[in-house]
Amino acid sequence: MAAGRWVTFDCYGTLVDWWTGMGDAAQAVAGDRAAELLDAYHEQELILEAERPAHSYRHVLTEGLRRAAAGVGVELPGDADQAFVRTWTEMPVFGDVGPALAQLRDAGWKLAILTNCDDDLIAETQTHIPAQLDMVVTAQQVGSYKPDLGHFHQFRDRSGVGEGDWVHAACSWMHDILPAARIGIPRVWVDRDRSGHPPGVASIVLPDMTRLSAAVEQISAN
Q1: CATH architecture of the domain formed by 18-88
Q2: Is the pTM higher than 0.85?
């Protein structure tokens, strides 16, 4: 693939409203204990993603929910352990995503997603994202999960992107901003979660994607 100027994104949490989608699913199975269940799921997800050989993300979603529910004492009747898988491809896209991606495309940037997800799940999600993507790199393709660097290395190899022509934008400080910093990629931290992590690891911190195009141009010029 010909090189060019690229912006890569994490998808879930950055482009897609993970908290609303997963929160609704957790609410359906755990009621007023949904927040507790989600916190427990986050811990289990990290454990499952670190195991080798790498699990499919469907397995992570399902087994992570089972372990989280067991840990906090929430019963999952019937096929309730599939709740996160069922909601995954129907989660809403943030309202600022369409305009931001259109501005980047108009400015000549190519767009890619680096996601901790399976090929089929991201393919369904893409039907809801209001922009054409030039490349998608998944955990299924790479055989590992961010914050490992496999996604970043594979994107660099496949795109042929040159030094100074790549900016990474993401919400997750741990999964995306830290690994991007490790390999020296300019990075926009879209801190939708107001997580409180050290902002100095990012090149620029934004509260959302409203000013993303200007931020990308600014850090790519430095």
Answers
A1: Orthogonal Bundle (1.10)
A2: yes
